[in-house]
Amino acid sequence: MTVEGLADIASFDDFMKVDIRVGQIVEATDYPEARKPAYKLKIDFGSEIGIKKSSAQITAHYSLEDLVGKRIMAVINFKPRQIGKFMSEVLTLGVPDGNGEVILLTPDKDAPLGGRLY
After folding, report:
1. Which residues pair with 75 in a beta bridge?
2. What is the pTM of this model?
3. For residue 56, which phi and psi values (nearest 5 degrees)?
4. How many CB atoms lie within 10 A of CB 77?
């Protein structure tokens, strides 16, 4: 089954395979070796999952100081991906602004670390 403009329709079971969780950025550093401006992030997903690393091209809207303490959403069950010399363990999620720059998906501040999107 296809919908106009979409190649495939995902089933609910497909959606449930993607594990999207609440994390809190505990460290953010510049990533000058990246092809496009990016930061290296360490994100705490709570005691069950722990701290994971991610590279994110979010420099247009966020300074390093803005990021520490910010709660974000990330996919935690994709295979780690080599981004230059950095191994990214999770995919930090965002949406584009009018210029195509990333705006992070951020849950309410009361969302518990490690909380799963459903």
Report:
1. 20, 91
2. 0.90
3. -140, 135
4. 11
Tokens (6 digits) for 36: 């496009």
Total residues found in the chain within this entry: 118
- Contact (Cβ atoms closer than 8 angstroms) between residue 77 and residue 64: no
Q: Which two tokens stand for residue 21?
A: 């969780």
What DSSP string runs through 10-51?
--HHHHHHS-EEEEEEEEEEE-TTSSSS-EEEEEE--TTT-E
Residue corresponding to tokens 């510049």: 30
Q: pLDDT per position in the chain (118 positions), as tens? A: 455 666 788 899 999 999 999 999 999 999 999 889 999 999 999 999 999 999 999 999 999 999 999 999 999 999 999 998 899 999 999 999 999 999 999 998 789 999 999 8
Spatial CA neighbour of 67 closest among 33, 31, 98 = 31
Sign of CA dihedral 25, 48, 109, 118: positive
45 touches 26 (CB < 8 A):
no
